[in-house]
Specification:
heterodimer; A: alpha/beta; 7-stranded mixed β-sheet; 9 helices; globular; B: alpha/beta; 10 helices
Chain lengths: 351, 353
């Protein structure tokens, strides 16, 4: 333990030096998305179980990618991959004696590679992949199969679950393998621990929440891939971004899927179009008026523990008018929502 | 040799291991807040009943001649035993005398190759849009390997889904094929069965899983162009559907769990050739959609291996106008063949618990 702590301190020192050097270099860049104001980091100090503070994680990512050129931040999930229909047998290792989870890990990696290839053809030069699938504690993307030019953020706990290390340096976000919102008619539909989540009255799914956190930094979400329920609801939430429908939901655990090669081809083409549209200024960040009025309801099946954990965060108040498990929060920082997600993931996945 | 299974005090008929596996996904579906989906296939909108939101959902319309392939494992080449057609139950010891691993290591791949052979044959005859439906219950209707299926094909998998063997079939399809078909429950065919029934008859004719779905497809104007299965299944289908479809015999029954089999390579070759002929005859309009006289008088008897509680739950199903005619027997009349499919959709989850 001590050794690990010393190593971490050493790394922080090294990172700090690099930040200074690249910070100077970054002054001169003239890339697509203008950096927004420095976002407020509201992670309570020391509150999150030894996880690197969000801003520190962001700085580390920024130091590892070139200061110039189009950088794409890719979130990967698994429920919306081509072929996937079953949560119990396909989304976790070792359950149901089924080897399928292993093969879908490869597919997750291949779908990421497909959008990287397309984005590269469109002019993108740097890629950060953030594993967003909680099954197996965010260890699903296969590192040696991933495009070697990409950084891969894996493991858990990590700050702000699906947007770890996202920064204004990124020009755009993409998400593959995404699933539709809790309560919707999609394959393995859910959203964190929520039955519903709205910002200023606008419902957001997991993809939408990532777009909200990124949007505040000036980073638009430009591509989403999943089943038809996900792609149609995400266009409703985010506007006419690029979407790839890899399968049609025929039930919450049933669907009609494109073959993997066809899904990859469509992902490549869509990613190319998305970067092309980004460069033309056609795709803009998702922004809401501040202060944000956040409303959410927690799933009935969720443990009471999550309520206790959330009580530690400032500004959250019960919203019994909406429902018994509903809460409200007023904040001017989307990252405060990220901290809420940290608490929820912790209560769900804590070893 | 099947001690672990018998200790479960469940059905001893061939589908037992599959059904035990399904207990888990039924529970998961309940968690996934889908209680309305399992039993409400008919989309009834009476008080307190939520219509199935997936009912009537269309698959993306693709250009080219459309072929729908229904694939099951029981009637595929070489397979003779339920252990080859479902994964071992969680926690059950592997049998010392039979190979429980063959489902994962061999038969899922062979099954996928059979589907691919049919897809390949259909493509040679000019089919441009091909859907393969995984209609085998094992692994939650997920036996075909998505990573091995022909890249042109759209793969339907998972459960529950409306009209589960033919989900997404509609009048835009030129023809439907059934591969891996079996003879009806209680007959001397390999792994013979009919959903969760001991008997199912329409207008007095004993139906099997192919002919029921052929009737629903027929109402959509879609003819059956090929049936592949053991010789018993083929004979049964010809007796009901007529002899216009291309018959592909994958194995010859010498018992319900024994057969004279051919090399998988030969089966795949014949399937591909048969599929080509089938699409050619469908495109030349040499096939007629299968029809029966309306209204359909449907009679069925639930499998005696199912617990009595299932009979009570079937009796409680509303919206179909079921009339109970015996301890496990029911009948109803409908002029819409899809209602028969929705009833099967409603009974299947009751039967798998």
């Amino acid at each position: 333990m001590n050794g690990a702590r010393w190593l971490a301190r050493l790394l922080v020192l090294m990172a700090g030096t690099a930040a200074f050097v690249t910070g100077i270099a970054a002054q001169g860049r003239g890339s697509v998305a203008a950096p927004s104001r420095q976002a407020l980091d509201t992670t309570p100090p020391g509150a999150y179980y030894g996880v690197t503070e969000y801003q520190a994680a962001r700085q580390k990512v920024e130091q590892l990618i070139p200061a110039e050129g189009i950088a794409i931040y890719i979130i990967s999930d698994m429920e919306g991959l081509a072929g996937v229909v079953n949560n119990a047998r396909e989304m976790l290792p070792g359950r149901g004696n089924s080897p399928d989870h292993q093969r879908f890990r490869e597919e997750e990696t291949d779908e990421i590679n497909a959008v990287i290839a397309g984005a590269r053809a469109g002019g993108a030069t740097a890629f950060v992949v953030n594993e967003g699938h909680g099954g197996d504690n965010f260890h699903n993307v296969i590192p040696e199969r991933l495009d070697p030019s990409a950084l891969l953020i894996r493991g858990w706990p990590k700050p702000i679950v699906m947007t770890t290390g996202l920064s204004p340096r990124m020009n755009a976000m993409m998400i593959i393998g995404a699933h539709s919102n809790a309560g919707s008619n999609g394959i393995i539909a859910h959203s964190y621990a929520f039955d519903s989540f709205t910002v200023n009255g606008h419902p957001l799914n997991e993809t939408g929440i990532a777009a909200f956190i990124g949007g505040e930094m000036g980073v638009p979400l430009i591509l989403a891939a999943g089943d038809d329920a996900l792609t149609s609801e995400t266009r409703d939430m985010l506007g006419p971004i690029e979407t790839v429908t890899v399968k049609t939901a025929l039930g919450r655990s049933a669907g009609a899927s494109l073959s993997f090669p066809r899904a990859h081809a469509e992902l490549r083409e869509a990613a190319l179009r998305a970067v092309d549209r980004l460069r033309r200024g056609d795709l803009t960040p998702l922004r809401f008026a501040t202060p944000y009025q956040i409303r959410y309801c927690i799933r009935a099946s969720f443990t009471p523990e999550v309520f206790a954990l959330m009580a530690r965060l400032p500004g959250i108040r019960p919203d019994p008018a909406t429902g018994p498990r509903c809460f409200g929060m007023e904040t001017s920082s989307a990252e405060a929502v990220g901290n809420l997600l940290n608490e929820i993931e912790w209560s769900a996945l804590k070893p | 040799m099947q001690r672990w299974r018998r200790s479960e005090k469940r059905s001893t008929r061939w589908r037992t291991p599959i059904r035990i596996n399904q207990v888990r996904f039924v529970a998961i579906l309940a968690l996934a807040s889908a209680p309305a989906l399992a039993g409400q296939g008919a989309g009834r909108t009476g008080a307190g009943v939520v219509a199935n939101p997936f009912l009537g959902k269309q698959l993306p319309l693709e250009p080219g001649y459309r072929v729908y392939i229904v694939a099951a494992m029981s009637g595929m080449g070489t397979a003779v035993d339920a252990r080859e057609l479902s994964p071992p139950v969680d926690g059950a010891p592997l049998s010392a005398t039979v190979n429980n691993a063959d489902y994962e290591t061999r038969f899922r791949s062979l099954f996928t190759q059979e589907a691919n052979a049919a897809v390949h044959g259909a493509r040679l005859a000019g089919a441009g849009s091909i859907v393969v439906s995984d209609a085998h219950p094992a692994n939650n209707f997920g036996s075909i390997l998505p990573w091995e299926i022909d890249s042109l094909a759209t793969l339907v998998r998972g459960f529950p889904r409306p009209l589960f063997m033919i989900s997404g079939l509609d009048s835009t399809f030129g023809t439907v094929m059934f591969i891996g078909a079996t003879a009806s429950a209680g007959t001397p065919g390999v792994l013979s069965h009919t959903f969760g029934f001991d008997a199912l008859a329409i207008d007095g004719k004993v139906m099997n899983e192919v002919t029921v779905n052929a009737l629903i497809a027929g109402e959509m104007g879609v003819p059956v162009s090929l049936v592949a299965g053991d010789d018993a299944a083929i004979a049964e289908c010809r007796a009901i559907l007529g002899s216009d479809f291309v018959p592909v015999i994958t194995k010859y029954a010498v018992g319900t769990m024994a057969a004279i089999t051919l090399s998988p390579a030969r089966v795949h070759q014949v399937l591909a050739t048969g599929a080509t002929l089938a699409v050619q005859s469908a495109r030349d309009h040499r096939l007629k959609p299968f029809t029966m006289e309306k209204p359909y008088r449907v009679e069925f008897t639930l499998a005696k291996t199912l617990p009595d509680s299932v009979s009570a739950e079937v009796a409680a199903l509303t919206g179909f106008g079921l009339e109970r005619t015996g301890a496990r027997s029911f009948r109803f009349t409908t002029a819409d063949a899809r209602q028969i499919g929705y009833l099967i959709d409603a009974i299947e989850p009751l039967a798998v618990r």
